[in-house]
Amino acid sequence: MMIRVLLVEDDPLVAMMLEGYLDVLGHEIVAAAATVAEALDLVAKRDFDLAILDVHLADGKTSEAVAAALSDAGKAFIATSGDATIMAAEFDGRPVLRKPFRIAELERAIAAITG
Questions:
Q1: Among 52, 66, 92, 104, who pairs with 39 as Cys (CB 3.0-4.6 Å)?
Q2: The pTM is what?
């Protein structure tokens, strides 16, 4: 089953890696954002099945507000971070992938959250 993904990632190289991973897994990115403001706008306006959410974004903010908006909208999401101190509990028990991660880890997280 193809999953439509909202990607919230500020690093272009990581975004390209994720696009490649999702393509291999048969999913597609339907929208992308690099800042909290862009992400909140897309959460309100775009239709998607799952979000992949970088914890720390280029605008110097964490994406907790985006996580809250996704939760309020009933949208599934996976958090990603290079910061080992981020705990899944901070993101409402959602999966947190530690960067760098492999395609198999992403695939398992998608399967776990989309059931």
A1: 66
A2: 0.92
